[in-house]
Amino acid sequence: MPRLLLRGFKHRSFLCLDAAVEQVIPPLSVPFAVAGMCFAASVVSGAETLAVIAAVSLAGQIVYLLCALWLVRAPARVYSALLYAPVYITWKLGLYARALISSKRVPWVRTARNGVQTQRLSTAEIRSEL
Fold it and tell me: Does the predicted TM-score (pTM) go above 0.70?
């Protein structure tokens, strides 16, 4: 991310700057889990003000998600799939924890593409495609 950011400023490339910013935006599951844990911890500890703030944060995130689904006119089955969100968030946080704790580092290996030719586009070509 730092190299993308530096390259974006050096070459005045909004494409690189956008890619760099995209890397620091956490998936929705992370802030939702943090707000949920803050809410649980504040309720257990009796910190009423913090519990209200965490509840408002959770409510805001839920409203944000539901408004997005409403705007794209998502079918009913998408809304019912949200019932699995706690399971997904738990799985995702476990995955992050294992990745951070694991001492085994596996290098990324490019997937072989049989019979498919890839084309590298320049920034100007990407802009013209948009």
Answer: no
